[in-house]
Amino acid sequence: MGAQGKTSNSSSSLRVKVYRLNDEGNWDDQGTGHVRIDYLEGTEDLGLIVVDEEEDDFLLKHSVSSNDIYTRQEDTIISWKDPEAEAELALSFQEAPGCCYIWDQICEIQRNLHFSSLGDLEVGPRPAMEDLEATSSLLSNDESLRTVNSELRDLPSISLSSLPLILKTVMECGIMDQMRVGELILKDQDFFSKLVDLFRMCEDLENMDGLYMIFKLVKGIFLLNNPQIFDRIFVEEYILDIIGSLEYDPEVPQVQQHRAFLKEHVVFKEAIPIKDSSVLSKIHQTYRIGYLKDVILPRVLDDAVMASLNTMIHANNGVVISLLKDDASFIQEIFARMRSTSTSVESKRDLVLFLHEFCSLSKSLQQVQQLRLFRDLAAEGLFDIITDVLQSQDKKLVSAGTEILILFLNQDPNLVRSYVIQQEGNSLLGLLVKGIVTDIGEDMHCQFLEVIRILVDSYTTSGSQRDTIVEIFYETHLPQLVDVIASACPPQNTSQSIAKSSATITLTKPEILSNICELLCFCVIHHPYRTRCSFLVNNAIEKVLCLTHRREKFLVVAAIRFMRTIVSYKDEHLLRHIVKNNLLKPIIEAFIENGDRYNMLHSGVLELLEYIRKENVKVLVLYVVDSFWDQLLEFQHLGTVQALKVKYEQLLENPENKNATITVDPRRKTEDRALEKEEEDYFNEDSDEEDSVAHSSHVRNQNVRSKLPNGTKDHPSSRSGSVGLVDYDDDDDDDYNPPSKKSEASAEDEDGVAFSRIKRKSTTSPDCKDEKPELVKKPKMDLRVNDAKAAIFAASSTCSDSNTAVDTRQSSGEDCPSAPVNNSSSAGVVNG
């Protein structure tokens, strides 16, 4: 009764109401009292005892069961189904701390009952009496009661009998108590040595219950996520036994063999001997941390613990790399062995793999230290070694070499660029290009693609290095890549030159062709001027569009994406090249062949047409509708095709585009060709006066050409006897459009020399008079001659403006899709 008196005088935190569930499903109030845990009278079982606060009588006596019948609801209710009373009971606490305390006591009693087979588990009156007295003292001072761990002062000494209490303390501590439990473990300097001794004893005695408890205890210690505890666990003295304790997982039917694997199967292979013992220790520790994290406890560890272990690995890598890079003799010995002819092939292979891992782990260093390390490695001749490695037949070595290059390019691209520029024959760049088009396996051509993209990236290059590396690539290697595409495609519906170059079809992996297309798009975006020149000279666009004849739809889409990239650049010369060579024909044919299937090909072509319409690329709008509208009629229900036709009609209604619409009429081509021949004969007549005019126009041409943009060079045909006309090699002459009146007026005001020049031209020689009857016979010819003279007048007025010095034909009809283009000079140049 003394205990009952103490309980009746305790704080209100242990004040409860007892409820019983009746047959109707309602809870009946059995009374109010104070709860405690004590031995039941006449038994050795611990149970819940509730004493009435008024009559000092028992409201409840319940023996705690080892079965999982208890439920904690919210913060103040504990309920269970009593098998003896055959009823559901509940305790409703006045305050949450009291409920938390009783719940912890029930859990502890159940745990002790589970491990009762171990014997000598002293869970006597102390939890029920002494802890309750301590609780009453705390509550009397109005201090909050949280969990049993908040009252811990020291952990009991590790022994088989104290394992349940220590395990409960570690496993059931809340977030607020984790730091406290970690401090208690660290406070005991012999904690892990005793734990290891206890593990060895249980393993020798084959005490599986003890081994299971040690497994749970070690797992709980890891979940505390205390870095100082990790430092103690992973020392050489304890780590293998700690790993051994994790072999006895009660949820796994068979004992794991982690220690045997680490001792027998894991071999530490040194490509070059490491003499520093601290470096070796860190290397071994890092491997074991990773093994524990990735193999032993991946299902158990949460994200926070994983992050802590990764931090340890990262820190260890940084220590190892720092110690090795500061050892100058170590680095020099590596490269000396690589260069030595006496070193075996297998040893060189190991050294290359070591360098790969060494460079990869250098990411653990600070950026400044990593850059200094890479410069030291480059100075020792690392790139010479990589050049040799890329010629190896060993795929693993080739992959390691490319990954090292990517690491260097991500850190400092100029290190690699300087080497490529200075290297005789540029063999490294050639090997990288060869790697793109070679099926080495394992998608390694993607790695080579990434290396080249970084090398020629205009955003990360500056100065002379940029110009040199790009010039080498475009002059030597880009045509090779384009020819790979041409040789891998069937030559149907291609020009004769393309068919000859691709007479033998090579079996190239489709993914490689797709990567080459991606690289070409990259080049168009980053180096538009160089790609324009290269594409026009090598017919690259036509060769790439051969991909539209491949069976693989993703290659057809790649070709469409390539054309879309070129069109978005809006280069006048490339657009006219597309129109002249009818380069959209294979794309439209692929679209027609695809039919109504809704796929990437369908969407890609529609997006291309939509872009042409929205951006008002007039020359392509006129070209597409005039050339392919009959084929596109079956798709006119699509909004994009309808909108394109509307845009075309708007261009026809615009007076500025009237001349452009005339030129696209194929019925006039024959007549225009005859007119062009007569015009050339007329203006090529010999006369002294025209020679003087030609000489003055030649001087003026020199000035005009000195101001032409983009470095456009004059074509030799510009020095012909015809004055003021564009000399074309093609038969079409549809672009001889007179300039606007406004431009003529401005030219008259600004250039008096041009006026006098036209005046002299009007007094022609007798030879010209002889041609007059022919002009009368063909009035259309007369109109064109006058237009040509007006073009001379307009061209002279544009000498002061370099932006309008090129192709004065565009003053009134710049969107004419069938304008002839001189292939040898990329664009027509006004001679006047």
Automatic annotation (TrEMBL):
<feature type="compositionally biased region" description="Acidic residues">
    <location>
        <begin position="677"/>
        <end position="691"/>
    </location>
</feature>
<dbReference type="GO" id="GO:0005654">
    <property type="term" value="C:nucleoplasm"/>
</dbReference>
<protein>
    <submittedName>
        <fullName>(wild Malaysian banana) hypothetical protein</fullName>
    </submittedName>
</protein>
<dbReference type="GO" id="GO:0030289">
    <property type="term" value="C:protein phosphatase 4 complex"/>
</dbReference>
<dbReference type="Pfam" id="PF04802">
    <property type="entry name" value="PP4R3"/>
</dbReference>
<dbReference type="InterPro" id="IPR016024">
    <property type="entry name" value="ARM-type_fold"/>
</dbReference>
<feature type="domain" description="Serine/threonine-protein phosphatase 4 regulatory subunit 3-like central">
    <location>
        <begin position="174"/>
        <end position="650"/>
    </location>
</feature>
<feature type="compositionally biased region" description="Polar residues">
    <location>
        <begin position="820"/>
        <end position="832"/>
    </location>
</feature>
<feature type="region of interest" description="Disordered">
    <location>
        <begin position="797"/>
        <end position="832"/>
    </location>
</feature>
<feature type="compositionally biased region" description="Acidic residues">
    <location>
        <begin position="727"/>
        <end position="736"/>
    </location>
</feature>
<feature type="region of interest" description="Disordered">
    <location>
        <begin position="662"/>
        <end position="773"/>
    </location>
</feature>
<feature type="compositionally biased region" description="Basic and acidic residues">
    <location>
        <begin position="665"/>
        <end position="676"/>
    </location>
</feature>
<keyword id="KW-0539">Nucleus</keyword>
<dbReference type="GO" id="GO:0072542">
    <property type="term" value="F:protein phosphatase activator activity"/>
</dbReference>
<dbReference type="Pfam" id="PF22972">
    <property type="entry name" value="EVH1_PP4R3"/>
</dbReference>
<dbReference type="InterPro" id="IPR051137">
    <property type="entry name" value="PP4R3-like"/>
</dbReference>
<dbReference type="InterPro" id="IPR011993">
    <property type="entry name" value="PH-like_dom_sf"/>
</dbReference>
<dbReference type="InterPro" id="IPR055236">
    <property type="entry name" value="EVH1_PP4R3"/>
</dbReference>
<dbReference type="InterPro" id="IPR011989">
    <property type="entry name" value="ARM-like"/>
</dbReference>
<feature type="compositionally biased region" description="Polar residues">
    <location>
        <begin position="797"/>
        <end position="813"/>
    </location>
</feature>
<feature type="domain" description="PP4R3 EVH1-like">
    <location>
        <begin position="15"/>
        <end position="113"/>
    </location>
</feature>
<dbReference type="InterPro" id="IPR006887">
    <property type="entry name" value="P4R3-like_central_dom"/>
</dbReference>
